[in-house]
Amino acid sequence: MTTEVKKKKFIKEGTFGIYTGFFMLGSLIVAGLIIPRVSKYKPNDLASMPLAPPSRANWFGTDVLGRDVFVRVFDAVFIDLGTAIIGVSIPLVVGTVIGTLLGISQNKRVNSLVGSIIDGINAFPFLVFVIAMIAFIGPGVGSIVLAISLVNWARYARIARTRAVVVNQQGYVEAARTLGFSKKRILFKHIIPNVSSETRAYALSDFIIVIIAVAALSFLGLGIKPPQAEWGGMIRDGKDLLTVGFWWPTVFPGIALCWAGIAVAFISEGLTRRMREVGTR
Amino acid sequence: MSESQKTAASQDVKMEVEKNRNRAALRRTFLGRVIRSVVVAFWVMVIAFSLIRLSPGDPVRMALGADVTEEAVEEFRTQLGLDKGVLTQFWDYFSGILRGDLGYSYFSGRDVTEIVGTHLPVTLMIIGLSIGFAAIISIPLALYVAMSKSNTVNYLFRALTSISLAVPGFFLALMGLLVFGVYFNIAPAAGYEGAFPANLKYLWLPALANCGSLVPVLARVLHSSIVDTLDEEFVETGVIRGVRKGKFYWSYLLRPSLAPTVVLLSYMVGVMIGGTVIMETIFSLPGIGRELITAVDGRDYPVVQSIAMIFGLIVVFFSFVGDLTGYLLDRRVTLS
């Protein structure tokens, strides 16, 4: 009976957030797949008069070049989400592996050397470091991903290292060692999966930071190049018109960006809740 | 010193010994932190120095563009010091920093130290103001939610902090501009005055928009540590003794919960700096962040390197101060 009650609460905890988040993210992706294909406007073609307000023909109005904002907002879904996903995945993998190796290595000198390099990288403000790197490697999608990866792996490595030290002393790792499993097997089957549960949880909240950073870089004119529709770039194009009454070229891409961020924030929050619940049971 | 500490010390001489031991521990912690910070600061300089090596191909040619003469390329290379060996370059750079010489902007010819000196105060002020706003908003919010027994309040708190975490600062700033600048007409869209009280007129909206990313994090950490504090026995004692409301909130609830928040705040300085760069660009404020963007656009390498390094050093400094303050605020750890 008591387990029944607990189970019911467990299902409630966090589930609403996870479902809402997945629904928001899913609807954005579906809209990004369908709308640019079925719409009569192309993202980079003249749709109507420049700066036409939202109407039945152009739901979100048109921008300063007369392009349809509605199509452009949804055309940007994949470049924004895609860049952010790659920008999170590479540092996640690299950082987890390097951090884990550091955590279990016995070599004190390598450990403290790489450890202080990691601290040095982490000391730089994320956005500032990425901007500075782009000064040297030039703007563009590839540069953004490269710069974000070069900066961000250190954050994952720090988390992974701390966790790996703990995991390495756990009973199941000791047991695997006693059973004479190969080092490779212990590392990949026993240590990394347990370390990465922590880094993957961080990746979800990091995704919000990265998707905002990608848009912010384009907003500053350092990221994805026009005429590719991209939320940050669209906000940049519209920002000077905002104060003279043309709000739609800025507000709609901004809402899309927030929508994506909030979706992931809800999923992340829900999963954290759920994990905590599992932990306390 | 807290009440409990005072009574404990008077109760027993053994506590004196304990205290001395604590002092030694404090000194050790302090020294350890100093050494760590210096090492990290050194690596910050090395990393900023090696940024130029990231550029694919020849950074000099990339900066100058396609149609320049060989002589101009060589001259620029000498000017940047790139014709010497790596170690010599690093030594020049490193000893320059120690002397307070950060090199010259290639394009404007200005002394980088001077650029930093004139523009850094504006940036620091925006950050300070953002932290102030964030504290004013998050402390009452966290207290209210932690004291509230209502599930709805807690739920709303979690949902709203999640949402505001995901709203980008630059979008928030533009919406703020639309509401306060255009609709209510109480905030200037651009411009700046140098003197202290006058410049607040230009700084409050950027700072408010900038604290949008700080408030949810701060409020959450403060909330959870107040919830932890509420479980402590001394809180119950305070309630039973009928301590005055103000004293109760401060000494019994906030003060013991502050340590994690202060440490977090020092880590958030980096995030604040990133946000400030964007705010300065949006509101055309003469801070160091706008200088950074201008330098990046113009491929002004010495300026980009130095500004990145200065920001790195600022973060190192604040983590050091934050760690130490957190340690001093929460001495219970060493007493028990």
List the helices and strands and how they pair.
The complex is a heterodimer of chains A (281) and B (336).
Chain A: H1 2-12, H2 15-38, H3 69-75, H4 77-104, H5 108-123, H6 126-137, H7 141-168, H8 171-178, H9 183-219, H10 231-242, H11 248-280
Chain B: H1 3-11, H2 14-50, H3 59-64, H4 70-80, H5 86-99, H6 112-147, H7 151-166, H8 169-183, H9 196-210, H10 214-230, H11 233-241, H12 245-283, H13 288-297, H14 301-329, H15 332-335
Helix pairs in contact in B: 1-2, 2-14, 6-9, 6-10, 6-12, 7-10, 8-9, 8-12, 9-12, 10-12, 12-13, 12-14, 13-14
Give a brief rundown of this model.
The complex is a heterodimer of chains A (281) and B (336). With 281 residues, chain A is mostly helical. Chain A is 77% helix and 0% strand.
On the 0 to 100 scale, the average pLDDT of chain A is: 87
Q: What's the CATH superfamily of chain B, by name?
A: MetI-like
What is the CATH domain class of the domain at 77-228 in chain A? Mainly Alpha
Shape of chain B: globular
Provide the β-strand percentage band of chain A: under 5%
* Gross CATH architecture of chain B: Orthogonal Bundle
Number of DSSP-assigned strands of chain B = 0
What do we call the CATH topology of the domain at 77-228 in chain A?
MetI-like fold
Share of residues in helices of chain A: over 70%
Q: How does the major sheet of chain B shape up?
A: none
* N→C terminal distance of chain A: 15 Å
Under CATH at level 1, the class of chain B stands as Mainly Alpha
Biggest interface, chains and residues, is: A-B, 49 and 63 residues
Main structural class of chain A = mainly alpha
Low-confidence stretches of chain B: none
Averaging pLDDT over every residue of chain B, what do you get?
83
Could you tell me the strand content of chain B as a percent range? under 5%
> Low-confidence runs of chain A (pLDDT<50, min 5 residues)?
none
